[in-house]
Design goal:
Chain lengths: ~525, ~525
């Protein structure tokens, strides 16, 4: 058995569910070995940022680690932006990056670059695979990806991949998430109890599970504490029977106002709230009174257990399930973010998965969520746009029996538009909605916030993408995806409803009247 | 004047010719400042790999440094693969990378990553811009990019960009290329003289100029030395009046055979020849007898001057210009790499610029080059595919009065296909030919070389991109580029000839009968 086959087998034995690949010459031993390791499905991508984003989506939905197969430093570099997002999503990913054979590296051949340095900077762990410990190093990569909750990178020189190796497969052994100490739970419970409706719970990460949300509902019922969640969540279940958690607002001044009323702010599975960007003369730390903040569990801790223990300490009972919902009226007339949101809210089927990178257009969906069918939503976690389509692709590989809906801005979609081809190749059930407002709209908003005026023409040339208008119907068809354009609310409703009622890939360009 | 405006002004004053941008919130002060620095043209791209590749193409053709404007670590990460190629092309580029404001960095906001580490690993120089030396640091970045011949990266925290600064603009001061000592020239001249037709000159980098090639022709005439050039060249002038230089072959065993006959191999503007990849049991160092190699001038040295001095030491006269050319017959019947090459060779206009990332399909053009109109060709320098379309885009910005032709494989085109949109937006005169063989054909060749057999079905699934077939006509139209498909040699000839005879962007999908 050669090194490449041993690595693929070790990934499969240790529960890695799929490999998203864009190999080259230095990975040829892996290309050959795939035929002997059918238990690890390999999915081809046309660009490495699709591979890393898909691995992220796969991990978020399957709960299993995913892997990538990448070609030297530049291949890893192309994957990095979505690895950054995956690290912020705390998705366990093992990157297998082929490198030049050991003796070849010193010769500075054209494809040589500082792979070890960039791998270390953009992964939670990285290692050059030893020819003498191939399976042990691979199992360790799985351990580190799961334990540190992010991308672990194993660099595999060509000679390690092609050399014959002993076929003994090692096992990974990740430690479980850190448990929160009982006295911290007790102290937090006292604060929540005494603050009453001036208590705010901010939930995130693994606290956002069915059990976690049930516990949170119980706490709210007994103590009148308010519930909320992070601005961005890797995977947020939304169910009529669970409490609706408002998000901490994105913009700093709105977030500060959101936190201001509370005497006790308990963080469970979230980092200390800071603004996304800094602005001249404005604070980056969001809660106006830091002394109100109780940092109970970080996102890598066992936040779900901490939340359940907090509920127990407050002597809560399972909260009554609210199932009353209101019908959502169909939008009519102009197609806007608001009328499009109505259609999505009306027709999204139960158990669907939403990959949301809709930026400014997506906020219209928020007030409708309590009346939508139960579903899960995956947000853009690291702020590097170009995650939405790849994450949807990986989620659809992880859950071939569920409908995946990708909501994307037009600007964001163009970073990794190649994901559509992999959706077609794998016959995935992904429906993509492109909110086409012909602009990086969020940047115009930010311009106005920072400079106090709407951008003048010369600056708009860097913020608007209307010349030429992108034709997403043509782009989708060019990659094997059926597609239609909607110019009215009625047409969008019709297209979206039809796409929800059949299996199969589809793209709708929502040509917004802005 | 704020920091952002001062940086843009400093770039312009120091001869930086254009800025290829994909900005975000942290670069908003730059977006605002562009209106006050019209002397630095800003070109918007939809993906950062297009920006870095276009900067490379601009620098190669204009002879001036280019710049990019990128958004934090992930924006730089997306640019890295083509920065790797630009470094191998020795193109001077100044990357301006916005970063979080200084005080914000420590808070680990979602877009925070190890930017300094990746900037240093993939640039020839990098620096965090000091708020007290904004123009001096920017001028230094230009100096370093020119002197070290590659991408220099200046990281600009938000607060440095938006703060008021003294408007004094600093000057860059790069040292000229290193001159080769006279005794080294004399020694090389003696070797070339005594070896006669067993001498081989291998030219690359700045030795491939009009003057350099004239000197080489003179040397060949007087000494019977053979002439050749690197396998990949940043910018290779091809002129009926200059000698045709065969390239060092790509595959290691062919390159070894190429070097074998020579007693003296003089490297002028090229690194020591090594194979692109390593292969089991094969040597990576290509010349079979290392003692035959004379390393006269490296690619960063003043190789052109060394070549001219060598010619003088050998007492050459200007070589007679050969102008006899043969007409190239039109191909007929099936559209293949060979018949397509005939059309390109027949119709490419004088003074055209070719961006060549045609991989396996491009070799068919080589034997026709001596009979083509004078033109310049830019090769893929770092081996990271996805350079061709962006480099063509930047070259067309640099030379708006010249025809640019991009020859690309279908696999390679999909890495940075977003370049087409910038070509449309800027109304550039680029004609793109996509050699659609529905495969990463080079990888099938490599598979066969390494594993000794054609790839089986399961491995072919990672090497072929035929399911679904990409429709490049649709993709091009989706980004505002007129496009047609050619299925026969006659149709390709007609489309290519027409595209050469009018100004304006166009894409031809050459649907190869493989």
């Amino acid at each position: 058995m050669n090194g490449a086959e041993l690595i693929l087998k070790t990934l499969a034995v240790n529960g890695v569910g799929a490999c998203f690949a864009n190999p080259g010459t230095s990975e040829m031993a892996f290309v050959d070995a795939t035929s002997r390791v059918p238990e690890l499905p390999i999915v081809l991508t046309l660009f490495e940022g699709v591979a890393s984003g898909a691995a992220d989506g796969y991990a978020r939905i399957s709960g299993k680690p995913a892997s990538t197969l990448l070609h030297l430093g530049p291949g890893y570099a192309n994957a990095m932006a979505n690895l950054h997002n995956a690290r912020r999503a705390r998705s366990p990913i093992v990157n297998i990056v082929g490198d030049h054979a050991t003796a070849h590296l010193a010769l500075n051949a054209p494809l040589t670059s500082k792979l070890s340095e960039i791998a270390d900077a953009y992964s939670v762990w990285s290692l050059n695979c030893s020819p003498h410990r191939i399976s042990a190093n691979t199992a360790l990569a799985v351990t580190e990806a799961v334990e540190r909750q992010g991308p672990a990178t194993l660099i595999v020189p060509g000679d390690v991949a092609w050399a014959e190796s002993a076929p003994t497969v090692s096992r990974s052994n990740p430690r479980p998430r850190r448990k929160i100490a009982e006295d911290a739970i007790t102290a937090a419970a006292r604060k929540v109890h005494s603050a009453g409706k001036q208590a705010l719970l901010v939930l995130g990460s693994n606290a956002l599970s069915a059990k976690g949300l049930a516990a949170a509902a119980g706490i709210a019922q007994v103590t009148n504490a308010q519930l909320s969640c992070s601005t961005f969540n890797a995977c947020m279940p939304r169910d009529r029977g669970r409490p609706f958690l408002p998000k901490v607002p994105y913009f700093a001044e709105q977030a500060a106002a959101f936190f201001a009323p509370y005497e006790s702010i308990v963080l469970i599975g979230v980092d200390y709230p800071v603004s996304f960007f800094a602005y001249p003369g404005k604070p980056s730390l969001l809660p106006p009174r830091p002394e109100a903040v109780i940092d109970l569990a970080s996102p890598t801790d066992d936040a779900e257990a901490a939340l359940i223990a907090l509920a127990a300490a407050l002597d809560t009972k399972p909260a009554a399930q609210s199932t009353a919902i209101e019908a959502i009226a169909r939008g009519t007339g102009s197609l806007t973010a608001e009328t499009a949101a109505r259609s999505i809210a009306r027709h999204l089927p139960e158990n669907a998965i939403v990959s949301d990178e809709s930026a400014t257009s997506g906020t219209a969906l928020v007030p409708l969520i309590p009346n939508m069918a139960p579903h899960e939503t995956m947000d853009l976690m690291g702020g590097s746009i170009g995650q939405g389509l790849p994450v949807a692709t990986g989620a659809a590989v992880a859950a071939r029996d569920r409908k995946v809906v990708c909501l994307s801005g037009d600007g964001g979609a163009m970073y990794t538009i190649q994901a559509l081809w992999t959706q077609a190749r794998e016959n995935l059930d992904v429906v993509t909605v492109i909110y086409a407002n012909r602009a990086y709209r969020i940047l115009s908003v930010e311009y106005q916030r920072i400079l106090g005026q709407a951008p003048p023409a010369h600056s708009r040339a860097l913020l608007e993408i209307d010349r030429p208008a992108l034709d997403f119907v043509a782009l989708a068809r060019g990659m094997g995806i059926d597609s239609e354009r909607a110019d009215t609310a009625e047409r969008f409703d019709e297209l979206f409803a039809a796409a929800m009622n059949r299996r199969g890939r589809f793209l709708i360009e929502a040509n917004l009247a802005t």
